[in-house]
Amino acid sequence: MRGILALLLLLSATLGYAQDSPNIRTAIFAGGCFWCMEPPFDKVKGVLETTSGYSGGHVKNPSYDQVSAGGTGHAEVVQVKYDADKVSYSELLNIFWHNVDPFDAGGQFCDRGDQYRAEIFYGNEEEKKLAEESKKKIEAELGKKVVTQIKPAATFFPAEAYHQNYYQRNPLRYKYYRFRCGRDQRLEEVWGKASG
């Protein structure tokens, strides 16, 4: 019995789940290319992992080819698993906003189409309230109507393995794509040099 308990403790420590922090939650955000949405969350203390995937549509277990072609209703999303004792949902919302163009209803940056929309998927009424308040604050701060949608969380489908942590496994291709897509240039136009 002790051996099993020790193994479980070791496994949980290896996975980054603190024994004294059972307040593990998930959040789902769509912000265009999911490759680009993992890095800003990954560097936040309290974020345990990010997973690229699809959500918000009507097709079960969609593939990348299906979603990227459009018509599934799904958006490319990132699921953020986090320790709510170390980072708040409000802080995650702030990171989300500063990594999207909240005025673009036709996609994000060079990625066009509904599958690349910016959207917040809330998991409960408190998250909905916080998301709506943050949207109003952004509108007041930037003086322009925000078109980013806020909707109830839908089933999350993880993307194919080759999409996960793409920016870490393919840093040169990732940086080239991000530059060519104009993401950082547009983020700086909207948010200033502190964006991203």
Describe, in short, the structure shown:
The protein is an alpha+beta fold. 40% of the residues lie in helices and 21% in strands.
Structural class: alpha+beta
C-alpha geometry: globular
Distance between termini?
47 Å
Order of helices and strands: HEHEHEHEEEHEEHHH
In this structure, how is the largest beta sheet organized? 6 strands, mixed
Mean of pLDDT: 91
| Strand residue percentage | 15-25%
Enzyme class: oxidoreductase
Protein name: Peptide methionine sulfoxide reductase MsrA
InterPro entries: Met_Sox_Rdtase_MsrA_dom (IPR002569), Met_Sox_Rdtase_MsrA_sf (IPR036509)
Function: Has an important function as a repair enzyme for proteins that have been inactivated by oxidation. Catalyzes the reversible oxidation-reduction of methionine sulfoxide in proteins to methionine.
Report on the architecture of this protein.
The protein is built from eight helices and eight strands; from the N terminus they run αβαβαβαβββαββααα. By secondary structure, it is α+β, with helices and mostly antiparallel strands. The strands form two sheets. A six-stranded mixed beta sheet has the order 7-6-1-3-2-8. Helix 4 (89-97) packs parallel to helix 5 (125-142).
